[in-house]
Design a protein that fits this description.
This protein is an alpha+beta fold. It has one domain: Aminopeptidase (3-Layer(aba) Sandwich). It is about 35% helix and about 25% strand. It contains 4 helices and 5 strands. It has a 5-stranded mixed β-sheet, sandwiched between helices. Strand 3 and strand 4 form a beta hairpin. The longest helix is centred in the last third of the chain and has 15 residues. The chain is globular and about 40 Å long.
């Protein structure tokens, strides 16, 4: 398995996995948001990155990460915003490899930590997350504006 930053030529495969991720969370986004996100992921001035997991030419998974400043540390934090693997690859180390690649990228950026959220109904993913990170006990609050 190869983990690497996505290239512009990976757009269609990324869009298919991103759509599946959104479907998993029972949501959709307009095509304009796909375009904007893809553009941001490839803009060196944006704090967003994307990695893909590949077996040969087949994309098995994607991960989006966003770097941001913190009042608590000199270096940035890395927010692992979205992680998705194709159903056929689950339980085969793809998710773990993508998370480890985020850890490595965060270290290169001088980040102090990596954090992420998941839905409390995502029990399958939490089995992995409990092995590779610490559960903080914090509860998220949100107000849509």
């Amino acid at each position: 398995m190869l983990i690497r930053p996505l290239e512009r030529s990976d757009r269609d495969a990324w869009a298919a996995l991103w759509t599946s991720y959104l479907t998993f969370y029972k949501t959709t986004l307009p095509p304009e948001q796909f375009d904007l996100t893809w553009s941001r992921l490839h803009d060196a001035n944006e704090p967003m990155r994307v990695l893909g997991a590949f077996e040969g030419t087949q994309m098995l998974g994607i991960v989006h990460m966003v770097f941001h400043r913190s009042c608590w540390t000199v270096g940035p934090y890395c927010y692992l915003q979205d992680l998705f693997t194709v159903a056929e690859s689950r339980g085969k180390g793809v998710g773990r490899a993508l998370i480890e690649a985020v850890y490595a990228a965060a270290k290169l950026e001088g980040a102090n930590r990596v954090n992420w959220l998941t839905n409390d109904s995502n029990a399958e993913a939490m089995v992995l997350y409990n092995k590779v990170a610490d559960r903080t006990g914090f509860v998220q609050y949100r107000k849509i504006l």
